[in-house]
Amino acid sequence: MTLFIKYIRHLAFPAALLSASMLAAPRVAWAQPAASAADLETARELIVKGRELRDKGDLAGALEKLRAAHALAHTPITGIELARTHVALKQPLEARDVCLGIGRMPVTREETTRSKEARDEASKIAEEMRPKIASITVKVKAPADRTVVIKVDDVVVPVAGLEGRKVNPGKHVVTARIDEGTEARATLEVPEGGAKEIALEPEVPKAVAKRPDEGPIVAKPDEWVEEKRISPLVPIGFAVGAAGVAVGSVAGILAISKKADLKCENNECSATAASDLTTARAMADVSTVAFVVGGVGVVVGVAGLLSPSTVRVRKGSLTLEPYVAGAGGGFHGTF
Hints:
Strand content: 15-25%
Mean pLDDT: 76
Shape: rod-shaped
Number of strands: 13
Number of helices: 8
């Protein structure tokens, strides 16, 4: 029985080891998707061009090529070439970041000796760059209830990053603005590994009163009242009616007067009398039409009186409306 247990133990250990290795193997393969053949070939060509530009002193051009190569292949070799260029440009922040990224890359079975050497160099550069990184502290004098926008080299910096913000050595431009006010600007030079502090006091613009909501201004319920308004047809109708009656009356009186003055015998009239008769008849027609128009106007005015409208108006607002009272009229309103 003891021998059997020992035998099982001997079998269990290699099995456990095999299971662990099988579980670990896919993790290496899945950690970083393999670059395609086209990506790798393009990256090789970009590395060659980047090195040539770096040797000629065109560090900005070399940086562009090597960034593209590292984005395509993402290997320790492309990474170390990019890191070397950042070092040449005196950018310890970027150089250290790339080197730390190389250290986080999973090791593959196909990794070459050159890749291992690149990893070792990256680890060394990362430590060399640490003491060369500079820092600045930005202090801004501004009211606590106002919005402050702070930028370092045109990059917005969060409030939490104003104390000892890490930067590359060299010249830097710091700006601060309160709301939409005028920017306060300052330029400072920081040496390798140095630290500097800068204080800015931007102009405080006048506060703009803002409503708590962005919707339209709505009057309170007690600011509105209901009023009855007469129809505008009322004054128009009665005015037309009054004018029609007046014209009809005058024309009628003239017609009657003309006809009374006629002197005709045996239905025969002189030329003058015939003209007066024609005038009398015309005035009678005018009187008839005027009375009809006046009657229509009175009907319209009465209809307007029988159908007043109700409107809601704000208290204190100016209102003006016509009115009719007996034979007169006018306007009344509220202020």
